[in-house]
């Protein structure tokens, strides 16, 4: 009997059918360590005996470094779950066939633009692309910017800022606008922004330029604006494009995905569903990053949201992603031509 059992074990090894331990899970996180770590610790407390190993991105490479690593590991995946803090590169992994379909434990009325048709990713806990202005430079009665397109208005020349649109949420923002406006209108807008606005290396730098008074206002993310607000600096958040004829404010979600061939598939799905839970979105809404819950009817508002309801842009991220390869070359030529 022992011989039979031993032979069966050998057969399992060589057939690749050895069951892997499900008391461990590996996550790659592009979300900032200070935001993600408490959430992951809460999951571990709920799962006694679970070992969770997290790999965070390096700020210098941002999300691209982790995505490149996932692509290089495709033949022998080491990662179970990918927590991305923006969406375009998640769509890149989906298109490459590196993500597996998941049965998500979320309401059936989850926003269509925040989930994959094939179940390979789910969007949650969004950041908003907002106008951040320096209050000292806008005393009562002075006209204020109200739209993303104000970046191209000559009356704000040299007084407004935007991040270089080749990376992160700014690249996503420009790509969505390219898809919504159409190529001709988008090209004109982007060219005017290049001539009119101060272009900085990132959203954090835009927020700091506004809070210091180097520029009067800029386009950045809510989490970067909250850093300056929490420091007591004279800044204010304005949600752009709220008029009925305008596009609305863009929100860019975090995304969660399970890797195809994940070493710990059962634990991976459990972690993935915890990360998109009502509890997690509530923590992120009230935490330092002030993210906006995507879950319909979530009882917790983002701490970045004022008394008014925000009208969100109807962004089709999947449609926009298809435009990025050619658009990225155009934006690089436009914004790095000097």
Automatic annotation (TrEMBL):
It comes from Aureliella helgolandensis. Gene3D superfamilies: Periplasmic binding protein-like II. InterPro entries: Ferric-bd (IPR026045). This is Iron uptake protein A2. The gene is futA2. SUPFAM superfamilies: Periplasmic binding protein-like II (SSF53850). PANTHER family: SLL0237 PROTEIN, THIAMINE-BINDING PERIPLASMIC PROTEIN-RELATED. Keywords: Signal.
């Amino acid at each position: 009997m022992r011989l039979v059992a031993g032979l069966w074990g050998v057969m399992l090894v060589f057939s690749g059918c050895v069951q892997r331990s499900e008391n461990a899970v590996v996550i790659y996180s592009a979300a900032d360590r200070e935001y993600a770590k408490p959430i992951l610790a809460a999951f571990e407390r709920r799962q006694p005996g679970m070992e969770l190993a997290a790999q965070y991105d390096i700020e210098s490479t941002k999300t691209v470094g982790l995505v490149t690593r996932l692509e290089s590991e495709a033949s022998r995946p080491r990662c179970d779950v990918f927590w991305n803090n923006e969406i375009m590169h998640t769509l890149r992994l989906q298109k490459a066939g590196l993500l597996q379909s998941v049965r998500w434990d979320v309401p059936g009325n989850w926003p269509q633009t925040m989930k994959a048709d094939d179940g390979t990713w789910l969007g949650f806990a969004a950041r908003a692309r907002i106008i951040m202005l320096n209050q000292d430079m806008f005393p009562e009665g002075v006209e204020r910017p109200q739209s993303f397109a104000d970046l191209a208005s000559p009356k704000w020349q040299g007084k407004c800022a935007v991040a270089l649109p080749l990376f992160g949420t700014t690249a996503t923002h420009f790509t969505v606008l390219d898809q919504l406006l159409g190529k001709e209108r988008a090209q004109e807008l982007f060219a005017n922004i290049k001539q009119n606005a101060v272009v900085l290396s990132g959203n954090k730098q835009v927020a700091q330029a506004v809070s210091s008074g180097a520029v009067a206002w800029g386009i950045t993310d809510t989490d970067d604006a909250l850093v300056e607000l929490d420091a007591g600096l004279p800044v204010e958040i304005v949600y752009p494009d709220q008029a009925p004829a305008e596009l609305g404010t863009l929100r860019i979600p975090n995304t969660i995905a399970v890797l195809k061939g994940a070493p710990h598939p059962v634990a991976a799905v459990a972690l993935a569903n915890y990360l998109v839970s009502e509890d997690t979105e509530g923590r992120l809404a009230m935490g330092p990053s002030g993210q906006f819950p995507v879950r319909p009817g979530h009882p917790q508002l983002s701490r970045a949201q004022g008394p008014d309801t925000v009208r969100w842009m109807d962004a089709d991220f999947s449609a926009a992603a298809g435009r990025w390869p050619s658009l990225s070359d155009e934006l690089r030529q436009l914004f790095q031509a000097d």
